[in-house]
Design brief:
Largest sheet: none
Helix content: 55-70%
Distance between the termini: 58 Å
Shape: flat
Number of strands: 0
Order of helices and strands: HH
Number of helices: 2
Length: 68
């Protein structure tokens, strides 16, 4: 029978685990916006998000096809 020994069990989480936990804590804190946004602001943010996705897609297309 083979036993698997996991990482050090000294009670201190690894630096990577601490960083991941910190990021999760921050994400939970800011998951819901605290300010009210008008429809115009929401629409503008949506358009900016779509524009960013378009630019990233264009960049990937040019990298894949080798153009430019």
């Amino acid at each position: 029978m083979t036993t698997v020994v996991q990482g050090s069990q000294t009670g201190r989480p690894s630096p990577l685990r601490r960083a991941v936990e910190k990021v999760r804590e921050i994400n939970q804190k800011y998951a819901k916006p605290r300010i009210k946004m008008s429809r115009a602001v929401k629409f503008s943010l949506l358009m900016l998000r779509l524009y960013l996705i378009f630019l990233v897609g264009l960049l990937l297309f040019r990298l894949i096809t080798g153009r430019g």
